[in-house]
Write the structure tokens for this entry.
Amino acid sequence: MKLTHRSKLTLCELLTAVPGASLVALLAKHGVGNSLLGQLDPHDQRLREPLSLVKMLPRDGTPVSGLASELLRRKNDFRQQTSPRYVFDQRWAEVEQSIFLDGYRPSDKGWVPIDPEIAGLEPLEDDLIAELRASGLGDATEVINAINGSANQFTQAEPDHTASMTAIRIALDTLLRAIANERDYTGQQKWGHILGFLSGKQTSFVTKREEEGLSGVYSFISEGSHRWLDSVWDREMTRLGRNFALGMCYFLVKQRRREAEESRTCSSVTT
């Protein structure tokens, strides 16, 4: 079970509502934060700080999967221990939405993958954000904020799927514009014109086939961002559209890095 950093943090926000003794026992059972457990007691302030808890979670997904599965299995038990209970309910709703966005749905058997899983791969969203932070791209922060904003709109207690689709469209749009601006684009500020510039002979940043794929994804998420999405099926379509957009953002960032590496290689050869 591969969870994004966002879902782990949301999970830790829920854990801060669990009474200290139960929380220490739960962490110990799943081997989370073993280096600190000997120092913790039920009144330790670190148990009430999501950022402190998330640092205890190992990169290996097995303990986190066990923790998330037990929380699902014993949800009513932990809810009974929480006061006020509406705090648990609100945070649980956010956990469920966030993990759904990562590609898992709750069932009597635990968290069930919605899509086929590929062993060894980290969540795309985490990889993309890491690539953007390391990219040096001028608008990288704006793209990351839009990606996070899209997730927040989806995972909040009362999800706004339309706003989530709008935010992820802004992320893809901002990224494409930033890449075009690096190449001295001065044309119309419309998606089709910018994409045409990047696929044209002047830049050849993407191929015509890749342009068609980007255009198709943009059209899909644009439709979702301009109509009211509120049904269960639309929750599925929002997740799908968001994943498409994240994949295209990742492609663009990697393509930009690949192009830069090829340029440096050519320069070193000529010198």
In short: The first strand starts at residue 104 and ends at 107. The radius of gyration is 21 Å.
